[in-house]
From TrEMBL:
The lineage of its organism: Bacteria, Bacillati, Actinomycetota, Actinomycetes, Propionibacteriales. It comes from the Bacteria. GO terms for cellular component: cytosol. Its EC number is 6.3.5.2. It comes from Propionicimonas paludicola. Residues 2-195 form the GMPS ATP-PPase domain. One of its GO terms (molecular function) is GMP synthase activity. Keywords: ATP-binding, Glutamine amidotransferase, GMP biosynthesis, Ligase, Nucleotide-binding, Purine biosynthesis. Homodimer. ATP binds at residues 29-35. The keyword Kinase does not apply. Pathway: Purine metabolism; GMP biosynthesis; GMP from XMP (L-Gln route): step 1/1. Coiled coil: none annotated. It catalyses: XMP + L-glutamine + ATP + H2O = GMP + L-glutamate + AMP + diphosphate + 2 H(+). This is GMP synthase [glutamine-hydrolyzing].
Length: 321
């Protein structure tokens, strides 16, 4: 029978048998899949695992701290944080094309991870890389029968040829809700286990226009209000994901206090979905939307308008870029 306790026990044994006393690396994204995969491998082999968390400066308020503090506290994992905000913001300066932004962020991410791996590598070779691949990812990439836990790979996800790893993918047979149960079984806190999906390129693809520190500050402030009000209204579990988008290249005229304002719109994009392949816009209660709008325009002076995205996917995508 399927229980999260059985899964943990079985995977711990497999990982121990496979890895022996070799060293293992894991890139933490801050998302639930990589967190659960890392926690499982940590349970199996303890200090032989090192996690790398790339803080690209495109995270939401509190996210880096959540990984650094709460994840380490609940797992005891060995964590290296690569604080690379400047590298990413320099590389992104002046770039507003969405695909170019994505490519730059992907490239810098790999470089940062590679640098961190080389530094860690100084104490001896690293043989294995943990990935939080789920069953739907396996099916989507044509893998089918996902029973094997561990498969051989190199040049993973754009990593260069001189860094060679064998992949450990302990979640390969699981669906998202099962991964969450395994995470709970491993003692991860609810706010990590229940986290909404968040894209790797982070807020970089939620600023329509070029990304800079000031625009990130504005978006973070609005996003935090939205998250606070979503949680306060008890809506976290009925929403799949709630992107908040800053239209940084758009201004509109408003009136704030006694004067004219000329600020940016913020877009609210709450969606419901099963698997992110299709999505519908969430019918949030008007009072919740009103509270968000009032707070954002009061508390974030650069924003004078809040709009709601009522587009399904397709034809829209969940993210704006
Ligand atoms: P779209 O915008 O394509 O998003 O409807 C579907 C889901 O994927 C997430 N997303 C990403 N996740 N790296 C990620 O890890 C990415 O580059 C990326 N782009 C989109 C998005 O948040 C949604 O859950």
């Amino acid at each position: 029978t399927w229980t999260s306790a059985n899964i943990v026990e079985e995977q711990v044994e497999r990982i121990r048998a496979e890895v022996g006393d070799a060293r293992v690396l894991c890139a933490l994204s801050g998302g639930v899949d990589s967190a659960v995969a890392a926690a499982l491998v940590q349970r199996a082999i303890g200090d032989q695992l090192t996690c790398v968390f790339v803080d690209h400066g495109l995270l939401r308020t509190g996210e880096a701290e959540r990984v650094e503090r709460d994840f380490v506290a609940s797992t005891g994992v060995k964590l290296v944080v690569a604080d690379e905000e400047k590298r990413f913001l320099d590389a992104l300066a002046g770039v507003s094309d969405p695909e170019t932004k994505r490519k730059i962020i992907g490239r810098e991410f790999i470089r940062t991870f590679e640098d961190a791996a080389r530094r860690i590598n100084a104490d001896g070779p690293i043989d294995y890389l943990v990935q939080g691949t789920l069953y739907p990812d396996v099916v989507e990439s044509g893998g089918g029968e996902g029973a094997s836990t561990i498969k051989s790979h190199h040049n993973v996800g754009g990593l260069p040829d001189d860094l060679q790893f064998t992949l450990i993918e302990p979640l390969r047979t699981l669906f998202k809700d099962e991964v969450r149960q395994v995470g709970r079984q491993l003692g991860l806190p609810e706010h990590i286990v229940n986290r909404h999906p968040f894209p790797g390129p982070g807020l970089g693809i939620r600023i329509v226009g070029a990304v800079d520190a000031e625009r990130l500050r504005i978006l973070r402030a609005a996003d935090l209000i939205v998250r606070e009000e979503t949680t306060a209204a008890g809506l976290d579990s009925s929403i799949w994901q709630f992107p908040v988008v800053l239209l940084a290249d758009v201004h509109s005229v408003g009136v704030q206090g006694d004067g004219r304002s000329y600020g940016h719109p913020i877009v609210l994009r709450p969606v419901s979905s099963e698997d992110a392949m299709t999505a519908d816009w969430s019918r949030l209660p008007y009072e919740v939307l009103e509270k968000m709008s009032t707070r954002i325009t009061n508390e974030v002076p650069e924003v004078n308008r809040v709009v709601l995205d009522v587009t399904s996917k397709p034809p829209g995508t969940i993210e704006w870029e």
